[in-house]
Amino acid sequence: MRTPTSAPRSVALFAALSALATIAAGAQGCGPASATCVTTGTPVAPPADPLGATAQCTTGKTWACLNTGANFMNPGQPCVACHTTRPGAPRWTVGGTVYASAHEPDNCLGGPATGSDPVTIVATDSTMTERTATMVPGGNFFFDTTARPPFTNIRVRYQGRERQMFSPATTGDCNSCHTSAGMNGAPGRIVLP
After folding, report:
1. Which end of the chain is more exposed for a tag (fewer CB within 10 A), N or C?
2. What pLDDT, in 10s, does the model give residues 25-74?
3. What DSSP state is assigned to residue 169?
């Protein structure tokens, strides 16, 4: 998934990432432990080339707890592996994390998700139904159990731009391939357009 980048986009993205701590601390459905589960570091400016960037935690925010039920917990880690097997976990067939660059470490909060300009993830499932999810603060997104693989026409939309994944996905556990280093042909993380 490739999209040209520009300096104004980087400036706007940096401003949005700087506000992520406030958004994450006040997000609904984040569970009582969430305020103490996010450690704060120093945010860094998003790279001009998000796919060619070195490893960094752009937001400067790291998830420091285990499974608390927060909708932004465990960013970057495989979602569906737990959400199909762990007792009490909501059941999902698709889940992942969107980042500002392709090589963010596990547990680094992704994003941004600010105000009236949400990040949306769109995919067509095996029933030819187009599914849409909105990223939550911290970068995570998920679809309910009615979405079925394989998935095609997968896109991330943000601020009028779109980044598309051209190969079909045989699993909905997006972070199982979209790791910091990338696996199974993925270039790294799912990246904002």
Report:
1. N
2. 333 333 444 457 788 888 888 888 888 888 999 999 988 887 777 777 89
3. B
- Please list the residues that pair with 142 across neighbouring strands: 95
Given a contact cutoff of 8 angstroms between Cβ atoms, the answer to whether 82 and 92 are in contact is no
The answer to whether the CB of 24 falls within 8 A of the CB of 40 is no
Task: Please report the beta strands in the chain, taking only residues with DSSP state E, as ranges in sequence order.
Answer: 38-40, 61-63, 94-99, 120-124, 130-134, 140-143, 152-158, 161-165, 190-191
The three-class DSSP label of residue 95 is strand
| pTM more than 0.70 | yes
Per DSSP, 152 falls in state: E
Q: Residue 150: exposed, middle, or buried by beta-carbon count in 10 A (0-12, 13-18, 19+)?
A: middle
Report the candidate in 127, 112, 90 with the shortest Cα–Cα distance to residue 159. 112
Q: How far apart are CA 168 and CA 150, in angstroms?
A: 7
Residues sharing a CB contact under 8 Å with residue 99, sequence separation 6 or more, in sequence order: 58, 76, 108, 110, 111, 139, 189, 190, 191, 192
